[in-house]
Amino acid sequence: MAAVAEVRTVERSWIRRASSYDPYLLVSVLALAALGVIMVYSASIVVAINYYGSSYFLERELIFICLGLVALVMGARIPYLWWKRVSAPIFGLSVLLLVAVLVPHVGHSSNGAQRWFQFAGFQIQPSEIIKVTLAIYMASWLASKGDKVRSFKDCSMPFGIILGVVCALILIQPDLGTTVVVAVSMISLFLVAGSSILHFLLGIGASSVLTIFTLHFRRYQGARLSAWLDPWKYPTGAGYHTIQALLALGLGGLTGVGLGNSQQKFFLPAPYTDSIFAVTSEELGLLGALCVVGLFLVLGYRGFKIAMKAPDDFGKLLAVGLTTIIVIQAFLNIAVITSSVPFTGVPLPFISYGGSSLIVSMLAVGIMLNISRHSATSHGPAEGIKHGDRGDNTGRSDGGQDRRPRLSSARSHPDAATLRGRRPVRDLGVSAYSED
User: Which pTM does this prediction carry?
Assistant: First the structure.
């Protein structure tokens, strides 16, 4: 009987632990990842058999999924305040990787771009890693600024310099799509942190000038802009990708041509990476495409919901930063495929083939799940770290004795951040201390 009681206790502990995470966020991400495995197989099988004699891309994607799930679990189990402690070192290391990848014979070049490290048959892309590490660092840095977040000298100018250096290193590779994702995400985070609206608008203006400058001096990107305005004018040149993607969308109709039956995957450049949404839309139709969009909307909504309920400024800003990066990248990819914006290459999170993007995105979701876990408890995140984040939400370390420090909860005192001399971050629509 004692053994049965112990098993039941363990089961109840696991149920409490699992239910404290945001289930909607987790289910939406797992659904996207599962769909990604199916679509990578469908879009790549012909190429894989012709060139490798096996389901090469599916096998590697399954490896990436396993590594991504490990990253998700790690992110969900590590107390999110730990990332605040290591934010500066991991961000510095990421910047060094961005510099190192540009060094000849160190970084791997492909199709005129130098964005990867080649290691044991796999490629590592530093620009994917910097997305998460920059969000962590900026969230920590902005949360520590307090009232100075509205100061141009103390906050806006250093913020612009840091973001400008990171974007410049990514743009040199060149990778305009990732540069746009990073810039827009971090400027949005800057606004949520409570910055001056004027400084926010200046940041938008500077980003626009940088984009125009890039289009002017990089001919191929300028050609993409011309092709976006009239792709049929360049059917075999800069407009080719856009035309093939639009044809895939049209051929899919309402319900699609069926899994594996896409014809455009033989004509689309990178059908299992940047163009995978076009193949998905052709095979699953408008309904399938809307399901993908809906899953990303759920992810975005739950991510911002987690931010609104986060127990401290760092958690709130970190959830906003990570959510924004994933959602902006997803809808930028979809906008490119539907010719809503000029062509630029970015993978579709969780669905496109590729290890760096998938693993980093899974880690980001894991961190958001950990924030949601602390948001769901009645005590703050400090206890979770102090007691090793045991996962049982009791905060007890030995003998069942509750030795938590009796601190006032910020959730009970909405003005606690102000009383500590720090200006609360900008609200997202409801109080950060409100209950669901």
Answer: 0.80
